[in-house]
């Protein structure tokens, strides 16, 4: 798979994961399950999104010569 497409998939995975984690954080804060200091787009959400983007990038099939 070309490098551009793999990077595009990783960027999409990052954005979608960040949106989902932010929504989950907002729900947990509103339900008084999580501490109020846990903010949206915080360290935990960005690290989680980066891990998902890395996994998506590594799982992209490589182009085979020939």
Q: Decide which structural class fits the backbone.
A: mainly alpha
The dominant shape is elongated
Number of strands: 0
Radius of gyration: 15 Å
What portion of residues is helical?
Answer: 55-70%
Low-confidence stretches: none
Estimate the strand proportion: under 5%
Distance between the termini: 13 Å
**Helix/strand order:** HH
Largest sheet: none
Description:
- The chain is an all-alpha fold and 66 residues long.
- It has one domain.
- Helix content is 68%, strand content 0%.
- The chain has 2 helices and no strands.
- It has helices at residues 3-30, 43-59.
- The radius of gyration is 15 Å and the shape is elongated.
- It starts with a helix and ends in a 7-residue tail after the last helix.
Concise overview:
This protein is an all-alpha fold and 66 residues long. Helices cover 68% and strands 0% of the residues.
Indicate the topology.
Blueprint: H1 3-30, H2 43-59
Helix pairs in contact: 1-2
List descriptors:
66 residues, mainly alpha, 2 helices, elongated
């Amino acid at each position: 798979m070309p490098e551009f497409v793999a990077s595009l998939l990783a960027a999409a995975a990052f954005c979608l994961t960040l949106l989902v984690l932010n929504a989950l954080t907002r729900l947990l804060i509103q339900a008084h399950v999580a501490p109020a200091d846990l903010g949206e787009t915080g360290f935990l959400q960005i690290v989680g999104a980066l891990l998902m983007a890395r996994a998506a990038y590594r799982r992209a099939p490589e182009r085979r010569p020939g």
